[in-house]
């Protein structure tokens, strides 16, 4: 099929010598319908029919009236192979969906290293390759915010052309002909997206919430934004009721659990004390019970020992102590992230080592004292060091140094607040010069404290200092006005 090139947009007017596109019937019809100045009800219905066929997930769950509003305002644009769709740091203008062909996502200053990046050297100006999106997949929603103070694009997108759809059927000759090497994208303009789709995307995908959750952990808060985005896309939220068995010993290792809310009890199998070498089985559970190892809670990860050690079957069980909300991610995907983030991988290896040591201690206790309860006391939960924390991956020397820096940080924060309060008193008494001097001292001390929070990764105190600096800035403006 042939389509007249519109020439109304910059990206569609690059090659003026090429006046016609060769596309399939449905794509041509969609382009024709969306190029009309006025879209009648029948046009809207046909647009919706084609869009639902090409991108079934895009409008899923929306009211019929909302679908029609989107169909009235959506745009269809095409991009030749290697042509940019948008660049990193661009201001967001629309939400995009691939209708035909494919696009690739790239990020500057990315920690991701891939073979694809090396196979497209002519695209090195866009950064490193992250992933490719085929027909039906959407992108661009992460830049939009509920308060309309949108973020700039955190990655660039480049057209991969028809992505193998090089032949189409010609309705006139009934023969296959060469198709144009373009990717066809559906654009929902920013205003329409925010009023019709943003709330649903925010509640359903929760991508931004996932990223914020990851950044709150010392394991992931140093990751680049593109890595966090990929991780968030790979995480699926699942709920568990209180008392439910999450996984059993002997189950296949295919995913890990990152706890968002709730508590999870980790246990290992007991043994027949009359035959110490006989392993526990699920049939013997009532007879021999299980040995409780540790309790994991918010931001902790279960399944690490199996993933890091390359074990194919679960060596421990997990049960929901309270209702749990967890993110699951495939072990293959998680391992690929660790390959790109060696610092995180090294920290997790320390976690795994401490977990193994604690498990051996618990099992040894159960074997030596078979008549003692195998439930784990509260005080043992605290001393186990099984849970993931900044302290759990530190040596004794590192812990000592962190404690010393933490004490210095407390003094800095105390002095900064004291200077700020003194400045406010001087301001109230109309002594502006001394007020400004004390305010400057408070700001300088706060900056020193912030440097320390970065060194010891104290996010809570960093937030306190950010709030203090904001108050200092407000007070400085008041003094300037006087």
From the structure above, extract its key features.
482 residues, alpha+beta, Jelly Rolls, 3 domains, 4-stranded antiparallel β-sheet, 20% strand, globular, disordered N terminus
Explain the overall architecture.
This protein has 482 residues and is an alpha+beta fold. It folds into 3 domains: 2-205, Jelly Rolls (Sandwich), CATH 2.60.120; 236-393, Sandwich (Jelly Rolls); 397-481, no CATH class. 43% of the residues lie in helices and 20% in strands. It is built from 16 helices and 20 strands. It has a 4-stranded antiparallel β-sheet with strand order 3-12-5-8. Strand 10 and strand 11 (176-178) form a beta hairpin. Helix 2 packs across helix 3 and helix 14 packs antiparallel against helix 15. The model is unreliable at 1-19 and 272-288 (pLDDT under 50).
List the SSEs and their pairings.
Elements: E1 2-4, E2 20-22, H1 25-34, H2 41-54, H3 64-73, E3 75-80, E4 84-86, E5 94-100, E6 103-107, H4 115-119, E7 128-133, E8 138-139, E9 156-159, E10 167-169, E11 176-178, E12 182-189, H5 190-196, H6 198-205, H7 207-215, H8 225-234, E13 236-240, E14 245-247, E15 255-261, E16 264-269, H9 285-288, E17 290-296, E18 301-302, H10 304-309, E19 317-320, E20 324-330, H11 331-340, H12 342-368, H13 378-383, H14 396-428, H15 432-456, H16 459-481
Antiparallel strand pairs: 1-2, 3-12, 4-9, 5-8, 5-12, 6-7, 6-9, 10-11, 13-20, 14-19, 15-18, 15-20, 16-17, 16-19
Helix pairs in contact: 1-2, 2-3, 7-8, 14-15, 14-16, 15-16
């Amino acid at each position: 099929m042939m389509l007249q090139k519109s020439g109304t947009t910059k990206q569609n007017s690059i090659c003026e010598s090429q006046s016609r596109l060769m596309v399939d019937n449905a794509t041509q019809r969609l382009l024709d319908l969306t190029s009309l100045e006025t879209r009648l009800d029948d046009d809207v219905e046909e647009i919706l029919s084609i869009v639902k066929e090409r991108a079934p997930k895009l409008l899923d769950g929306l009211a019929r009236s909302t679908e029609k509003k989107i169909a009235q305002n959506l745009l269809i644009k095409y991009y030749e192979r290697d042509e940019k769709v948008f660049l990193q740091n661009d201001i967001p203008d629309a939400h995009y969906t691939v209708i035909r062909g494919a696009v690739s996502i790239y990020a500057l200053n990315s920690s991701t290293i891939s073979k694809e990046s090396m196979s497209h050297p002519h695209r090195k100006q866009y950064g490193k390759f992250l992933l490719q999106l085929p027909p039906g997949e959407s992108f661009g929603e992460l830049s939009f915010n509920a308060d309309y103070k949108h973020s700039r694009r955190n990655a660039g997108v480049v057209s991969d052309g028809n992505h193998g759809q090089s032949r189409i059927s010609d309705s006139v000759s009934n023969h296959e002909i060469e198709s144009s090497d373009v990717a066809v994208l559906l654009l929902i303009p920013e205003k329409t997206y925010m009023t019709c789709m943003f709330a649903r995307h925010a509640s359903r995908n929760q991508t931004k919430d996932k990223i914020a959750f990851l950044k709150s952990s010392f394991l992931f808060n140093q990751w680049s934004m593109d890595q966090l985005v990929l991780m968030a896309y790979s995480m699926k939220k699942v709920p568990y009721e209180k008392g439910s068995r999450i996984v059993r010993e002997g189950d296949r290792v295919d995913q890990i659990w990152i706890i968002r809310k709730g508590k999870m009890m980790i246990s290992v199998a007991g043994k027949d004390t009359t035959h110490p070498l006989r392993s526990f089985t699920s049939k013997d559970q009532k007879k021999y019970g299980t040995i409780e190892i540790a309790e994991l809670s918010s931001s902790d990860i279960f399944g690490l020992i199996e993933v890091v050690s390359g074990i194919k079957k679960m060596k421990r069980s997990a049960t929901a102590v309270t209702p749990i909300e967890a993110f699951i991610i495939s072990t293959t995907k998680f391992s690929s992230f660790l390959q790109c983030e060696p610092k995180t991988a090294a920290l997790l290896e320390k976690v795994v080592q401490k977990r193994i040591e604690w498990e051996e201690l618990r099992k040894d206790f159960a074997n030596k004292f078979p008549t003692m309860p195998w439930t784990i006391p509260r005080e043992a939960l605290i001393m186990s060091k099984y849970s993931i924390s900044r302290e759990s991956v530190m040596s004794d020397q590192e812990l000592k140094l962190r404690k010393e820096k933490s004490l210095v940080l407390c003094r800095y924060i105390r002095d900064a607040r004291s200077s700020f309060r003194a400045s406010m008193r001087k301001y109230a008494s109309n002594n502006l010069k001394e007020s400004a001097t004390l305010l400057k001292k408070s700001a300088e001390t706060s900056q020193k404290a912030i440097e320390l929070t970065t060194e010891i990764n104290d996010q809570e105190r960093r937030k306190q200092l950010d709030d203090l600096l904001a108050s200092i800035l407000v007070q400085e403006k008041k003094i300037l006005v006087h």
